Amino acid sequence: MNPKFMFKLSVVIFALLSLVSCRQDVEPDYDYISFEMDGNSIELKAEYDSFWNTYIKSTNQDQLGLVLQDENKEMLGQIYVLDSDFLNKTLPYTIDKQREVLLEGYAEMSLINLTNPVDTLFNNNDSINFVGYSYEDFTLTINAFEDSVLSGDFFGVLKTRTGKTKNIENGQFKVKIDFK
User: How, if at all, do strands 93-95 and 138-146 pair?
Assistant: First the structure.
């Protein structure tokens, strides 16, 4: 082949690869919950289709459950949204302690330590599993719902039964929802 042609082709390929690799703010194409805690960035994701990421709607109630884990399978993150009726709300829709009644929406987030025995899970001596509630100091906002993909952000304080706290900042989620 012609060396000049090969050189030009190499330059074009390099330029295209450089453009593709310089893209910023690209969301992952998988389900995720990400946040910052204790100065660390944490990402929880689903490695397989899960019945946990489910939206259930009935006449007087709706319930959304998102459950994902970290890469090392040491932490399970759960976000529950109850009675928000977000499909009929103008988005973004924020669920926090400013809601006058729980019927306008309730949210909670739990972080479960998978490396310790289950018998400690949320009993009175539990100092390793954290939970935050929207009626206390946890805030969740549903920002968008398009093509069965729900996305939003969250922040707040999660606590153990023994009083330890974790501050969650810059939380985001994007999950494809199964309707039941």
Answer: antiparallel
